[in-house]
């Protein structure tokens, strides 16, 4: 039944490994960039607030496919930005990570901002009263508590991100979806199985993520 | 004790040893509500001033303007001879010298009691970790919660939390302590343990501005009572004078409501 997998023609594990790597780097990047954006949006500087707001609303409402394709066509092919050069495989991978970060950071930012709203205003008042500056209040008091309250929504973003890595196929990154396309073309007699294999692969990646972070969410919750 | 001595510090900006906090003609609005009206108030070093008044009279707002948690619309506030900075580093530095205790404790919920008391020392005063811990433990001991050092705030009773909050403020070696209704959120049986700590502070010579409804504390610990109503300071007097012989009708009315049931 699954003999198309035994032919050695398709590197399913290899493709999913690329998916995992895309997810890993994009998740870390999104978390960092999203946190910076959230900091801008709650900060005292009007220019930064404006930038954060415009960025989030512009990027969040742009289809991911447009962003990913733009990284390749605009950044690479037109402007020649390769992000540290190398072969086209490496360039495509890094451009895809860049696009995924740019897009998912907006969702991280908004999740985090809702988390910031759960931190009572007295917490930052007490911190300011001690003489802490804005950046210290944000990083020492507000964000640590905000993060704890948004683990579950961030898990949603991470699961969406995992599945959204398939868009990288649009610029030729050899991850799971590109392999699926190839298998669909070559193995039309086993088409349901091809879909089943790919779907199973993603469930294996996302289901434990959701369960683990659900558990973490309960563990780190701030008691008030 | 000459709390009412009106040295004219507000005119010359030179720091004077006597007057630690000077509010001169301070006004503030919340929208249409004129919440502080022409407030003049001078607090001498080592003085304990209790601010009382009906709710909505502006006493909490007054307390919060002194470390600029509330901005003011006009007037000047001097602390130790220096005008209150507008924003940024200067303001943060000044706030470090002004301890504040809130009605709702506001202990950092994600940090242990010990970490709460160490944080300001480490991040603002840049103290060494060992020195900060030692000081934190001795302060916790002083307010009687040394055995709770490793717990989180939510695991403590309200009275314990408020005493930790006092220790947290004291860890900065403040010049003046602001208390914004420190016992109003407490169960009755926990009020005294907090008031006792405040009594000790007062006896130790700390300059304190206390917004409270605890008339017993005002009587026993205050050098001066400031009575506020409708955004104005209506009366200032020694506790004895104020409670036994209030001059203004507003104060008489207020006292009759709270002292006789």
UniProtKB/TrEMBL annotation, chain A:
Belongs to the binding-protein-dependent transport system permease family. HisMQ subfamily. Its main location: membrane. Gene3D superfamilies: MetI-like. GO terms for biological process: amino acid transport; transmembrane transport. It comes from Streptomyces radiopugnans. This is Glutamate transport system permease protein. Residues 16-213 form the ABC transmembrane type-1 domain. Keywords: Amino-acid transport, Membrane, Transmembrane, Transmembrane helix, Transport. The chain crosses the membrane at residues 22-43, 64-85, 91-109, 129-147, 190-216. CDD domains: TM_PBP2.
From TrEMBL, chain B:
Its main location: membrane. It is found in: Cell membrane. It catalyses: a polar amino acid(out) + ATP + H2O = a polar amino acid(in) + ADP + phosphate + H(+). It is a peripheral membrane protein. It comes from the Bacteria. Residues 21-255 form the ABC transporter domain. GO terms for molecular function: ATP binding; ATP hydrolysis activity; ATPase-coupled polar amino acid-transporter activity. One of its GO terms (cellular component) is plasma membrane. It is an enzyme of class 7 (translocase). Its EC number is 7.4.2.1. Signal peptide: none annotated. Keywords: Amino-acid transport, ATP-binding, Cell membrane, Membrane, Nucleotide-binding, Transport. Pfam families: ABC_tran. Belongs to the ABC transporter superfamily. This is ABC-type polar-amino-acid transporter. It comes from Streptomyces radiopugnans. The lineage of its organism: Bacteria, Bacillati, Actinomycetota, Actinomycetes, Kitasatosporales.
């Amino acid at each position: 039944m699954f003999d198309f997998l035994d032919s050695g023609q398709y590197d399913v594990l290899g493709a999913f490994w690329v998916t995992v790597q895309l997810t890993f780097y994009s998740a870390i990047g999104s978390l960092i960039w999203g946190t910076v954006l959230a900091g801008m949006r709650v900060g005292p500087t009007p220019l930064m607030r404006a930038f954060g707001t415009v960025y989030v609303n512009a990027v969040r409402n742009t289809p991911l496919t447009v962003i990913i394709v733009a990284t390749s066509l605009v950044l690479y092919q037109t402007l020649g930005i390769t992000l540290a050069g190398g072969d086209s495989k490496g360039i495509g991978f890094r451009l895809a990570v860049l696009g995924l970060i740019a897009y998912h950071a907006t969702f991280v930012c908004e999740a985090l901002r809702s988390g910031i709203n759960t931190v009572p205003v007295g917490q930052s008042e007490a911190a300011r009263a001690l003489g802490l500056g804005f950046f210290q209040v944000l990083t020492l008091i507000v964000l640590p508590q905000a993060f704890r309250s948004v683990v579950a929504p961030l898990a949603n973003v991470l699961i969406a991100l995992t599945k959204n890595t398939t868009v990288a196929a649009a610029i030729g990154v050899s991850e799971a979806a590109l392999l699926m396309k190839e298998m669909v073309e070559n193995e039309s007699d086993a088409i349901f199985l091809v879909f089943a294999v790919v779907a199973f692969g993603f469930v294996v990646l996302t289901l434990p993520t959701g369960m683990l972070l659900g558990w973490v969410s309960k563990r780190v919750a701030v008691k008030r | 004790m000459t709390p009412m001595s009106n040295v004219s510090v507000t005119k010359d900006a030179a720091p004077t040893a006597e007057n630690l906090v000077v509010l001169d003609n301070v006004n503030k609005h919340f929208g249409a509500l004129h919440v502080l009206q022409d407030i003049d108030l001078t607090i001498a070093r080592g003085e304990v001033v209790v601010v009382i008044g009906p709710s909505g009279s502006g006493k909490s707002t007054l307390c919060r303007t002194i470390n600029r948690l509330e901005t003011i619309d006009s007037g000047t506030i001097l602390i130790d001879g220096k005008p209150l900075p507008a924003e940024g580093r200067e303001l943060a530095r000044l706030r470090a010298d002004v301890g504040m205790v809130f009605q709702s404790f506001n202990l950092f919920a994600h940090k242990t009691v010990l970490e709460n008391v160490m944080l300001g020392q480490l991040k603002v005063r840049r103290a060494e970790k060992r020195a900060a811990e030692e000081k934190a433990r001795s302060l916790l001991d002083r307010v009687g919660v040394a055995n709770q050092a490793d717990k989180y705030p939510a695991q403590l009773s309200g009275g314990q939390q408020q005493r930790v909050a006092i220790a947290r403020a004291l860890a900065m070696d403040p010049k003046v302590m602001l208390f914004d209704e420190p016992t109003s959120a407490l169960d009755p049986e926990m009020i005294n343990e907090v008031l006792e700590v405040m009594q000790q502070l007062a006896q130790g010579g700390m300059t304190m501005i206390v917004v409270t409804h605890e008339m017993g504390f005002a009587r026993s610990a205050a050098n001066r009572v400031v009575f506020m109503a409708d955004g104005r300071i209506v009366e200032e007097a020694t506790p004895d004078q104020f409670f036994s012989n209030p001059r203004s009708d507003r104060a008489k009315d207020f006292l009759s409501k709270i002292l006789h049931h």
